[in-house]
Amino acid sequence: MMRSDKTAMSSHAKKLAPGEWLVGVEIGGTKLQLGLGRDTGDLKAIRRVGVDPAGGARGILEQIAFELDQLIHGANLDFAAVAAVGVGFGGPVDRLGGTVRNSYQIEGWTQFDLRSWFQGRFHGRRGQPPPVVLLNDADAAALGEARWGCGKGCSPLVYVTVGSGVGGGLVIDGALCPGSIQGPGAMELGHLRIARANNQELEAVASGWALASRAKARWHEAGASTLRDLVDGDVESVTGEIVGIAAGLGDPVCREVVEQAVDAMVEALTAVVVLIGPQRIILGGGVSLMEEDLWIKPIEQGLRREVPAMFRDTIDLVRPKLGDHVVLHGAIAAAHDVWEQVASSYRT
């Protein structure tokens, strides 16, 4: 039987006091988002900035410290109003220890104690630091969609994010199922090796960075003329998003790159369907914003073609309801759950 994470399970029996708020944070490879909310699924305030990977973890922490002040004071609140903090991090984390295991994109995060760092932001501003919970960003997104998005009431629910990397989250009966507490997590779909892609990991074929890299490698081919026109001949300006746009405009090279990514996604999700039997699969992330005819539709068609016959009628593949704020919503949901746990412990 799969183990669900009790820290993500909530009866919603306890409510925040009127003056209490929850902070959600998304730390990604290209963006940083902070949000202020409660236990209703609404966001009172949002801060979003880009991040410079060259600045490493130190630079991002400086941004977080500044944006956290702006978020709270901009809402006419003080730090004492924050009941709990949830963080969705773009990489594997140690949920029990509150530390980042490592980042595949940004230097300086390995074994960083992010929980203690956040609690330190409240030193001298609040009697006791608030509880802080740390999640992988894909797990946070899965929890957000299960709580307030198009995954509500669906079990098992699988969330797959395809952006700068590829990740996933699994929710069963409304609770996150992140794998062994000692392990790096469950549904790490990006590390699944794909037979039809020469046994490469899914992330090396289907992520936004992979799309850009594979298109750049074919930059001088005659079929890449539309791609070259879109970036005015500057190969370094090619991104996964631009590859998707060029594919939509009929660029043969970019279409082939996207089709290879689709084939890899079909193989990976076929395994997910057979092993987990999800009621619904939510396909999010920046790459999944590509035209439906290029991405979601061919993936769904491929799944129906390749899964065993007994699973074909169960395929339900959708885009997320919560859009670009999905990780923030999940981080706030996790913050609420850890606050609820702490509040319960004080009452017993």
UniProtKB/TrEMBL annotation:
State the organism of origin.
Isosphaera pallida (strain ATCC 43644 / DSM 9630 / IS1B)
InterPro entries cross-referenced by the UniProt entry: ATPase_NBD, ROK
Name this polypeptide is given: ROK family protein
Its family? Belongs to the ROK (NagC/XylR) family.
* Origin: domain of life: Bacteria
Gene3D superfamilies per record: 3.30.420.40
